[in-house]
């Protein structure tokens, strides 16, 4: 092969590489990615609480009154979301969270075989209906440092339904408070 043929082949290869590189630069300018000012995704958050400055806030119904109107069937349906982390069956072991069978009336952080957070161990006491109500309203506010990732249930009626359902999960249910 003479040098003229070699130069033609080398020139063709170099021209192809040069066109490929230029095509990549051109397509990068045309179809360039949008780089956000703040990296990551915006996660949904709780809606902002709008309070009326002139209107007085309606007094909240006490838990015994809400429990008198509560429906354990609705509570069972609402507690399906809790089933991702908790078991509800008698004798079932822990999942991500401890089993909830017999939780009403049980000592806080007392289930064998589950590693509770130090904050929940320090809380002490018993899971009364009032304590469960406070905890599921906002777990991180009630027990700062808890491992529980649940954001909380803001509706008092839904909390009462869930507590009424949890109340039924026991061999010896604790008596319901009188309204």
From TrEMBL:
Residues 70-170 form the Cytochrome c domain. InterPro entries: Cyt_c-like_dom (IPR009056), Cyt_c-like_dom_sf (IPR036909), Cyt_c_1A/1B (IPR002327). This is Cytochrome c family protein. It comes from Lichenifustis flavocetrariae. It comes from the Bacteria. The lineage of its organism: Bacteria, Pseudomonadati, Pseudomonadota, Alphaproteobacteria, Hyphomicrobiales. Gene3D superfamilies: Cytochrome c-like domain. Keywords: Electron transport, Heme, Iron, Membrane, Metal-binding, Transmembrane, Transmembrane helix, Transport. Coiled coil: none annotated.
């Amino acid at each position: 092969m003479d040098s003229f043929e070699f130069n033609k082949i080398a020139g063709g290869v170099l021209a192809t590489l040069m066109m490929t590189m230029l095509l990549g630069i051109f397509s990068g300018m045309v179809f360039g990615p949008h780089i956000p000012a703040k990296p990551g995704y915006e996660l949904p958050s709780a809606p902002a609480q709008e309070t009326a400055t002139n209107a007085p806030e309606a007094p909240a119904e006490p838990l015994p009154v809400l429990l008198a109107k509560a429906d354990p069937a609705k509570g069972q349906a609402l507690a399906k979301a809790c089933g991702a982390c908790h078991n509800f069956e008698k004798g079932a072991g822990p999942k991500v969270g401890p089993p909830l069978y017999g939780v009403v009336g049980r000592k806080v952080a007392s289930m064998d075989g589950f590693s509770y957070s130090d904050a929940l161990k320090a809380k002490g006491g018993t899971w009364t209906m009032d304590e469960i109500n406070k905890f599921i309203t906002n777990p991180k506010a009630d027990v700062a440092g808890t491992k529980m990732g649940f954001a909380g249930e803001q509706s008092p009626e839904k909390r009462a339904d869930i507590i009424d359902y949890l109340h039924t999960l026991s061999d010896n249910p604790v008596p319901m408070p009188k309204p």
